[in-house]
Amino acid sequence: MNLDQFTPIIERIRANAATRERDRTLPHDDVRALAETGFGALRLPAGEGGRGISLAGFFALLIHLGAADSNLPQIWRNHIAFVEDRLQPAPAGRNGHWRKVIASGAVVGGAWSERGTTFDNPNTHLSPDGLLTGTKYYSTGSIFADWISVAAKQGDDHVIAVVNATAPGVEVVDDWSGIGQRTTGSGTARFTGVEVDDRGVFPFLDRAPYQEAVYQLVHLATLAGTARAARDDLVEAVRNRTRAYKHGLGETAREDAQVLAVVGKVAALAYAAEATVLSAARSLDPVADLAIAGEDDLATPIHRATIAVYEAQGAVTELVLQATTLLYDALSSSALDESTLLDRHWRNARTITSHNPRIYKDRIVGNWHVNATPPSLGFDRAREAAS
């Protein structure tokens, strides 16, 4: 599938990424440019304004975007999951409505997590007359969005409420203070008596059954892009370095076999990360196709595909953290200068890997292989609460 229309945008994003990082400039124009070029609708069928791209094809593009600026894939993470939800066959009327919204170029953010509460008992509530009130954190993408997907309770039921980002009572603040992914807008979202249309209220269980794997794959694609960017920056730095250590093996860094070996190692790590992500994405494609077609008996294939994604998480985490640390071995103390911004690759990777920590996924994978225990999917606590 030809996706050349995104190349100029991604190259512009790449050219300005370091400046945005240094100045903490949110990439509003870049998000809008991607949306206007159809990025957010790529997974929709061609007959509904999309391109019908596979998950593997989409995640390959996402890696390319992440190599330009790792903040951009994460900004789109909630939108990507929302699209998968709306591709499902039910509820047909409301999902069809939102597919039209997505095809128009709208961007959807997300606001699910809260500080100081559990998922089972959020402080965000949707009243019987459709008014949403509550405060969220980690509201990634919402500051760029036209619509925001909000996790809430309506009475005893867990729901997703989709609100207009410009509606009265909506406030999104750029107060994310993490060490990395600084321009994702992953901060606070406040909702004060916000009106929610009936078409924007979904039972929490009305989501793509493979959604959890999609969420994790976005992080993994972001990491693979980060490793590729670290490799590219390292190659450029070695090419341009004129000084050499007196005990080195060459007159310049680019002639030093030990330095070149480090570059080769970082390149191999980046390659392995990307290949692992794409392999996991390919394992999810047939599951997604069956779910979208209305197939119900998907528990076993979803479990297997989810385990593949979790295995990829364990591998990619190690690969990318190693690559973004090892690159300094091929450089000198001048590479530590803040102006190089080489540290952003490790900071961004460390931030992404701290979401949905790998230690839990490693345990789930081990339990699957040894005891045939299926992974917990789709916030099982919500399923239990709804049963």
TrEMBL record:
User: Which residue intervals define the domain Acyl-CoA dehydrogenase C-terminal in the entry?
Assistant: 218-355
Q: Which GO terms describe its molecular function?
A: acyl-CoA dehydrogenase activity; flavin adenine dinucleotide binding; oxidoreductase activity, acting on paired donors, with incorporation or reduction of molecular oxygen, reduced flavin or flavoprotein as one donor, and incorporation of one atom of oxygen
Query: The organism sits in which domain of life?
Result: Bacteria
Q: Identify the Pfam families for this entry.
A: Acyl-CoA_dh_2 (PF08028)
* Gene Ontology biological process terms, A to Z: fatty acid beta-oxidation using acyl-CoA dehydrogenase
GO cellular-component term (any): cytoplasm
Task: Write the record's keywords in alphabetical order, separated by commas.
Answer: Oxidoreductase
Matching entries from Gene3D superfamilies are given as: Acyl-CoA dehydrogenase/oxidase, N-terminal domain (1.10.540.10), Butyryl-CoA Dehydrogenase, subunit A, domain 2 (2.40.110.10), Butyryl-CoA Dehydrogenase, subunit A, domain 3 (1.20.140.10)
- Alphabetized SUPFAM superfamilies for the sequence: Acyl-CoA dehydrogenase C-terminal domain-like, Acyl-CoA dehydrogenase NM domain-like
Note whether Oxidoreductase occurs among the keywords.
yes
| InterPro entries, per the entry | Acyl-CoA_dehydrogenase, Acyl-CoA_DH_C, Acyl-CoA_Oxase/DH_mid-dom_sf, AcylCo_DH-like_C, AcylCoA_DH/ox_N_sf, AcylCoA_DH/oxidase_NM_dom_sf
Asked if Isomerase is a keyword of the record, the answer is: no
Q: What is this protein called?
A: Acyl-CoA dehydrogenase
Specify the species.
Answer: Paractinoplanes rishiriensis
Q: What is the lineage of its organism?
A: Bacteria, Bacillati, Actinomycetota, Actinomycetes, Micromonosporales
